[in-house]
Write a structure and sequence with these properties.
Number of strands: 15
Domain CN hydrolase: 72-345
Pfam families: CN_hydrolase (PF00795)
Helix content: 25-40%
GO molecular function, one term: beta-ureidopropionase activity
GO biological process, one term: beta-alanine biosynthetic process via 3-ureidopropionate
Radius of gyration: 22 Å
Shape: globular
Strand order of the largest sheet: 1-2-15-3-4-5-6-7
Structural class: alpha/beta
Largest sheet: 8 strands, mixed
Protein name: CN hydrolase domain-containing protein
Oligomer: single chain
Strand content: 15-25%
Length: 392
């Protein structure tokens, strides 16, 4: 399906403004803390060869007197399904692998040290179709499945941490399926994994029938390039999920997504940015693009036809938000693209110090209300007006 009639991006409209007005509007919407990032000529040549949109930016940093800067470059890759869903699974995977390998090459030449793929990046986003087969066949072992093995080689070759969100097949525990982010360090070693904790139960959504809720908590992975956490897709709607990762020491939180719909797109530019501000972390959020067409009508949980065969439009728009509230330009809503952003991890502590986030946060008060809620002793603390009217 052609996406030519879709708006390419908000930024493409903003750049039609006169220069003076553009600077003012950009400052109001995105902040004034980002400038262009220089990348190598080899990087730019590969972008042209692989026909990728490239957005590159550098966040401003304030040097400290005692700590050297902790600069890191991250890359976010958004991609559409390159072949029809009538293709066999191995062919779809092979085509997606090719796209990802090309993007990793570009990111490496651009100096990126952490690379994040979109949610379920090696397959169609089939979880609302109401069909288990053949889509569950995409599930594989997280630690040594074919997808992980390919990315291990790329991570080692390019001295790069790679975050890969896949369907995990747990062969030890009843062959269960999980929606899992695998973290591969820059030495090609699987550092660990995070299973998605929040799974939507919404109209047109059958995701709970495919995979289980996560059971690994909110792990943070310490890499040579910073401490990273992963909030998978729908979990971006839950402030405590971001908070849990921040409490465990995350400096960068990645949010690989498959997001569609006007209501969701309205929230897209707000949620990750809010999470960065509230928790004093960088947030890197990456979304799928394109529209996927299935053979059969979608079904709801009761087996009723929804009367459409398409996934809806994945609107891309991947971006990075900083703890001081500034954010990067976004990638296109319709094109395969790579965002490379450089920032200083020292800003996380600087923001927490300047805003007093650790000093003024009232953890015991939050603990008390959550304990009451989880122990079924919760009663809303509502003070009502008591009328003392007398009857005549």
């Amino acid at each position: 399906m052609s996406l030519e009639k879709e708006l390419d991006s908000v930024e493409s409209i903003l750049h039609k403004l006169p220069e003076k007005e553009l600077r003012q509007v950009w400052r109001i919407l995105y902040g004034d803390g980002v400038k262009d990032l220089e990348v190598s000529e080899k990087c730019l040549k590969l972008v042209s060869r692989y026909k990728l949109e490239l957005v590159k930016c550098k966040f401003n940093n304030t040097p400290e007197q005692l700590r050297p800067p902790r600069l890191v470059r991250v890359a976010l890759f958004q991609q559409k399904l390159p072949v029809p869903l009538t293709f066999p699974i191995y062919k779809v995977k092979t085509e997606m692998y090719t796209l990802a390998m090309d993007a990793v090459k570009v990111a490496a030449k651009g100096g990126a040290k952490i690379f994040c793929l979109q949610q379920a990046w090696n397959m169609p986003y089939a979880f609302c179709s109401g069909e288990k087969m053949p889509w569950s066949e995409y599930a594989e072992k997280a630690e040594d499945g074919s997808t992980t093995r390919i990315l291990q080689s790329l991570a080692l070759e390019n001295n790069m941490v790679i975050i890969s969100t896949i369907l995990e097949r747990d062969e030890v525990f009843e062959d269960r399926i999980w929606n899992t982010a695998v973290v591969i360090d820059n030495h090609g070693i699987v550092l660990g994994k995070q299973r998605r904790n929040h799974i939507p139960c919404l109209e047109n959504s059958n995701e709970p029938t495919y995979y289980c809720e996560g059971n690994l908590g909110h792990p943070v992975f310490e890499t040579e390039f910073g401490k990273i956490g992963i909030n998978i897709c729908y979990e971006r709607h839950y402030p405590l999920s971001w908070f849990g990762l921040a409490l465990n020491g995350a400096e960068i939180v990645f949010n690989p997504c498959g997001a569609i719909g006007e209501e969701t797109e309205l929230l897209w530019s707000v949620e990750a940015r809010n999470a960065a501000i509230e928790n004093g972390v960088y947030v890197c959020t990456v979304n799928r693009i394109g529209m996927e067409i299935y053979d059969h009508e979608y079904e709801d949980e009761q087996g009723n036809l929804i009367h459409h065969k398409d996934s809806g439009l994945f609107f891309g728009s991947s971006y990075v938000a900083a703890p001081d509230g500034t954010r990067s330009p976004g990638l296109s809503r319709t094109k395969n693209g790579l965002l490379i952003a450089e920032f200083d991890l020292n800003l996380c502590r600087q923001v927490k110090d300047s805003r007093g986030l650790g000093i003024t946060r009232k953890l015991p008060k939050y603990r008390d209300i959550l304990l009451k809620l989880t122990n079924n002793e919760f009663k809303p603390q509502v003070i009502k007006k008591h009328c003392q009217c007398t009857s005549t």
